[in-house]
Amino acid sequence: MAFLTDNAARLSGPSAEEQTALPQGAELTALVAAKLCHDFISPSGAVMSGLDLLDDPTAQDMREDAMGLIRQSARKMISLVNFSRVAFGSSSSAERFSSTEIHNLLLGLTDGGRAQIDWRIPEISLSKPHARALLNLAYLTFSALALGGTATITAHQEENGLTLAGQAQGNRARLKPEALAGLRGQPLSEGLHGQWIQPYWLWLTVSEIGGRLDTVVEEQCISLLARLPNHVEI
User: Does the pTM exceed 0.70?
Assistant: First the structure.
């Protein structure tokens, strides 16, 4: 995967002044919690709508549609919970994850989207921080393709570290300014916190284990590259 071309723009990291303005502790926790609540409210609300239809005596002809809505929304909710446990925290029952597990978590959240995922990672074992970085990087790569395209996800294991790469190629591939600021580890100056927190969480995950996250913006292509040390605290 070619990661830099003559027309590429590499995004720089945060300045010392910007680092002091970044959220920490309770503020960071509140932003993550708000993100999760925003994600969960849609499928949980759809389940309640389906149940209301089942209880409505004047809507019995819609019973089959109501059951379909409930099933679909429940599956979405389960996928979101499973994804979030790894992307924003860690599983209480697993010390390591396989790349196949991460791939399945990603598919559970992205199936039905306009973009395709080209998963080029063989079966490897990942620590919790590595798994968290991979899942967020892959999802954000996919998210850059709202109008369709291909999100290519790769990993390369070397003696001194693990390199994760995501390349989003498609018509009008882009990430919002808030997301780009988060990927640089910069505080949000304007825009929506919900669009900023997950990219920032990826940057924070990579930085706290001594890694480096680079973002490259090209025409119809967004690339994310995380270089991670092999040995990290779990």
Answer: yes
